[in-house]
Amino acid sequence: MNEPAPESLRAHAGWPAPVAALLLAAWLGGALYFTVVVTRAAFAVLPSRTLAGALVGQILPVLFDTGMLVGVFLAVSARLSPRGAARSASLVGGIAIAALSAIARFVILARIAQLRLTMPVAIDSLPIGDPSRRAFGQLHAMSVGALGLAMLAGIVVVVVLAHTLSATAND
Which residue has the higher pLDDT, 17 or 34? Predict the structure, then answer.
């Protein structure tokens, strides 16, 4: 993986960092908007927490799917980039974002869906000490943690890419 990009791609090697930064910034913006605005509004406006949870549950898979795509793009684009901090950050950050998004999407959300199928009533109707309600709380925390860590990795990568692009533009 430390080999330079093939000669045929070197003439175009300047494109990965700006495109990666743009895609990553768009994903981060969407993730931030979802976490800060959409979830709060859903739980504040919809008539029940069950409906708000259903709305959030429909949006999260899309957010995690796009996180996987952006993460893979970052990792692949790192291969086409010259060595340096931007390449390393894109590779490591891309793998982290893709992995965290995949775990959240295919493991955590699947367990939440399975758990909901076994519940006799809505989560909020269960007593606080109910094992199913506690299990849901733990899975929810894991989902929030996975998204938060993916976003944190994305912020680090976007800062490194922005610094690299700024330094390149000033050269």
Answer: 34
Position 133, amino acid: R
Tell me the C-alpha distance between 136 and 146, whole Å: 15
Q: Where would I find the H helices in the chain?
A: 7-10, 16-33, 39-45, 49-80, 85-103, 109-118, 131-170
64 contacts 105 by C-beta, under 8 angstroms: yes
- Cα(46)–Cα(28) distance, integer angstroms: 25
- For the stretch 137-149, pLDDT in tens is 999 999 999 999 9
Distance in angstroms (rounded) separating the CA atoms of residues 34 and 31 = 5
Nearest-angstrom CA–CA distance, 4 and 23: 24
Tell me the three state secondary structure of residue 136: helix
The model's pTM is: 0.86
